[in-house]
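Team,

Forwarding the record for the chain on the shared tracking sheet. I've put the sequence and predicted structure together so nobody has to dig through attachments.
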Amino acid sequence: MHAAAPVSPSAAAGAHPLVVHPAVARAPVTAAPTVGSLPTGWVASTHLLRAGGRARSYLLTRPRAIGATRLPVLVVLHGRGLNPTQIERITAFPAVVGPAIVVYPAGYHQSWNAGACCGPAHAEGVDDVGFLRAVVGDVLATQPDALPRSVFLAGYSNGGRMAYRMACADPGQFAGVAAVEAVAVYRCPGSTPVPILSLASTGDPLLRIGVHAAPRTIEHYAQPTVDDVVAEWRANNGCRNSATTSARGSLLTTRWLGCARGAPVELSLYLGGSHAWPGGDGATPAARRVVWDFFRSLRPTGTRRGVT
């Protein structure tokens, strides 16, 4: 992999200059900070917009050339205390997604209002659901080769909590959602079925895994177990009780099929580990590979379903 140098807006898109969609913002696109995991031929740019009365931004990475092939869009949400450049380096999605548009929104003071937590975004009631809708709209408006029905969402830690909230609050926005080292902190009594991947490490000290996990409260919210969240989405998606299981190194994966609207639910558990983004090893796939394999497995069933 090669690090990409900062580029000008016009260079970032070849013959198609990147501009901020006037419906949501007036600020210009700027050169992005140097990012660490971009393959050769990829470029990065920072996009500014206003959402919920606040100035917000996102980092966009993609192949330099814009051709006739439509590209899937992957939106990646950082954890609390991180920023778009850091989560780009940590997750390294461009190394596995092939030609795609990968987007890293910036949380409010490095946090997301995921529902019952966390940090400044929750304390100030920031409308992050509206912000992420605006980000997707801006990307689809400014990237002529973006494929609207192949927009996916992945989040880590606080960003994973926000991913769960988006799956419930706006189920038509994304063709699939993955949450890494996170549980939902947003009560969701019922939603349109959404393909869901929950990926966690059994050694994560911040999560509760299994029916015998000790109670845990975070910011006055009784945190559910990873199993509770998966069970809720299985019920929401109308999945059968039967499931397939597989093991790759220290990763155990259970996938429930036969779900409504072809929206499977998958639980992937790394044995051991910590709260860090799972990097894998020679026998165990990294989290970025697990997440993208899940998204690639989806089939089109609606406006924004599946990778073509």
